[in-house]
Amino acid sequence: MKKLTVISGKGGTGKTTVTANLAALADNLILADCDVDAPNMHLLMKPKVIEAEVFKGAKVAVKDQLKCIECGLCKELCNFKAITSDFKVDEIRCEGCGLCVAKCPSDALKLELEETGDLYYSQTKFAPMVHAKLKIGAENSGKLVSQVKEKAESLAQQEEKELLLIDGSPGIGCPVIASINGVDSVLVVTEPTKSGLADLKRVLKTVKYFNLPAVVAINKYDLNQEISLEIESFCRQNQVKIVGKLPFSKVIVEAMQQGELVVESAPESKVTTAIKELWEKVSCDLKLKG
C-alpha cells in the first residue's frame, strides 16, 4: 500500500478540490480527510456514513462535590482561571493540565476525557472514506488526525487497497505533521501569489525536516505567470519536482456549484486534462499498478 498526502501552505489553494478529483481518477484506494478543523471533502464526495464514533481527545478536571473541603488551593494554583469563586470547574477554561488534581488535599478532583469530535467511516461513489469533525473550540486536532489516518490505514490493509489518499490541512501545524507522518510522498498544492510562494517554502521546509519526498502542483498557474515562474525556479533550485500546472477554469466553479467533480462533468476540458496528467505523474512516481 502506498500513502500520499496532499497539503498546502495556506487555505484556498484548491487542495481539497485537487484531492477529490484525484480520488475520482485513482483505483483501489481508501480516502482520508485529515483536515478535521475545517473539513470540506464531504461536500465534494457526498459520503454515506456507515459507522460513526465519538472522539475523546482532551481531558478536563471534574470535581466530586462530596469530597471537596473548599480549601481554595485549586483556585490559587490554576493558571488558566478555570476554578470559579464557588470552587467549580469551568470546563471551557480548563486545559486539563492536572495540577489541581495532583495537589488537591482531599482527592476531590480527577481528570476525565471529554468528547471533542466525531469520527466517521463512510462510502463514496469512488472509494471508502474516513473523515472526522472536531467540535468548535476543541483542541488536540493533531490527535484526531492521527486517529483518522490510523483507521484509514487499517481499513486499507484489511481491504488490500493499493493507495491511501489523504487530504491534509493547510499550514505547518500539528495536524499537518500528523497527516504526513510515515507517508510515501507529499503533494503540495500552491498558487501563484506572493503569499502562496512564501507558504510553499515553509511547507517544503517542514516536509524536508521529516525526510519525506515532496512534489508540487501549481493551481491556477496562468493567473500570474511571473510568480509561477518564480515557483518553478525555486523548486528547480531545491530539486523539487513540479508534477502539475493546472490552469484557471470556470468549469471547476461550475462543477462545484452543481456538486460535481470537474473530471466527471467536463472530461474534455483543459483543466481535466491537466489533472489527469498530474495524476499520471504522481501514480508513476508512487509505482502504482492501476
User: What would CATH call the class of the largest domain?
Assistant: Alpha Beta
How much is the radius of gyration in Å? 22 Å
Mean pLDDT: 92
Order of helices and strands: EHEHEHHEEHEHEHEHEHHH
Approximate helicity band: 25-40%
- The coarse silhouette is elongated
From the 3D coordinates, which CATH architecture of the largest domain would you assign?
3-Layer(aba) Sandwich
For the terminal residues, how far apart are their CA atoms? 12 Å
Q: What do you see in this structure?
A:
The protein has a nine-stranded mixed beta sheet with strand order 3-4-5-2-6-1-7-8-9, with helices on both faces. It has about 290 residues and is of the alpha/beta class. Helices cover about 40% and strands about 25% of the residues. It is elongated, with a radius of gyration of 22 Å. β8, α8 (about 225-235) and β9 form a beta-alpha-beta unit. It starts with a strand and ends with a helix. It folds into two domains: about 1-45 and about 125-285, Rossmann fold; about 55-115, Alpha-Beta Plaits (2-Layer Sandwich). It has helices at about 15-25, 40-45, 75, 100-105, 140-160, 175-180, 195-210, 225-235, 250-255, 260-265, 270-285, and strands at about 1-10, 30-35, 50-65, 110-125, 130-135, 165-170, 185-190, 215-220, 240-245. It has eleven helices and nine strands. One of its GO terms (molecular function) is iron-sulfur cluster binding. It comes from Orenia metallireducens.
